[in-house]
Design goal:
The complex is a heterodimer of chains A (about 110) and B (about 120). Chain A has about 110 residues and is an all-beta fold. Chain A is about 0% helix and about 55% strand. Classes of the chains: A mainly beta (about 110), B mainly beta (about 120). The interface between A and B is medium-sized, with 24 and 25 residues.
Chain lengths: ~110, ~120
Amino acid sequence: GQQLNQSPQSMFIQEGEDVSMNCTSSSIFNTWLWYKQEPGEGPVLLIALYKAGELTSNGRLTAQFGITRKDSFLNISASIPSDVGIYFCAGRGAQKLVFGQGTRLTINP
Amino acid sequence: ETGVTQSPTHLIKTRGQQVTLRCSSQSGHNTVSWYQQALGQGPQFIFQYYREEENGRGNFPPRFSGLQFPNYSSELNVNALELDDSALYLCASSLKVGAANYGYTFGSGTRLTVV
């Protein structure tokens, strides 16, 4: 099925470091979403982006909607242990969300 | 405001059997979508239900079918189970306004294992 290209696939960082991950698509999306998924849970929405070029923050998280509407990135500043999980980007189509493969974040205390 | 609830949480079935998964949507939402998430992958869209009818379908065979009820809850049925159907099945409810869906909220999923 259709998927977005998300990178990196995994990250191993020290607590306190900043994190950056990105997502690209061959198709245009008018809305980009970033989710976090923890073991045994469904994805939880972190940030929604509705306008090309938009830069949006949610606490230590910052995401940008690419100007071409075909890419987005998510930054996490000053990582803490509870940031561990899998982060997914998703483009919102008419009836569905198209997800990336996820970035697994592991933090060494 | 209640969130999205799914049942059961875990299920083990034998190849060839049939399974029904259930989902209660979030209060105020009118649309339910189902996604299949294989291990190590992102969720893949199966189909969406709106006004008790299928309103969009992904690349899944007809043995994947669904229902939506007047209270907006939904069922996912899978017939003739195959080993590759083993996955986490996620339900997401949303509010459909015009052509767009807003406020996608996911349940915790049903982990299906086919042996």
